[in-house]
Please model this.
Amino acid sequence: MSLFSFLKRKPSQPQEQRKPRGFLPTYVTGERVILSKAAARLRDSYEIRLAQYFAVSKGLRLTLAVRPSAQMEPSLAAYLRQQGTEITEAQMDDYSVYFGHTKGDGQEGDGWVLGNSAALTALTQSTRSLWLRDRLRIGATFGGDTLHELERTVLKENSRVLNVDGENVRDALMSLIAAAKRDGGTLFVQ
Model:
């Protein structure tokens, strides 16, 4: 390699670093960490993997409580089987709420936990936009035109609600929206 070709080389792109995140177990007992998820379709998300890691690091077992007839992505089902996670079906009023984004290839990007079902209710009630109130729910996915509409709507909001990481939800949503747009993906609520 000549000196000139060395000088013309483009710097390598920095690796995307995942921001350390928290999660919110629904219950913790002396033997188990219980994470309740209300989505009809469960994605292989950082939140669930973090819950598994937390349980193992504390010498506990993860129990994932899902609604009857909930469907899981195959990669999540395989991971949970491999880890020995107990999966139980249950009707539930309290559950964890996760906002995440997928990349254009379907892989998960960043995400964060809003809180529990009460936090989702508080966020929805604090929202001025009827369009947003109607769409901020478990199972929602925003892509293409709806992602652009979500961005326009969230920009107009003035939320004081914080997620479990202490971030302003409006700012955290705008960050996920920007990432989903950059990656040609979607934003989802689980």
About this structure: Confidence is low (pLDDT under 50) at residues 3-7, 11-15. Residues 97-190 form one domain. The CA atoms of residues 102 and 108 lie 4 Å apart. The chain has two domains: 23-94, 97-190.
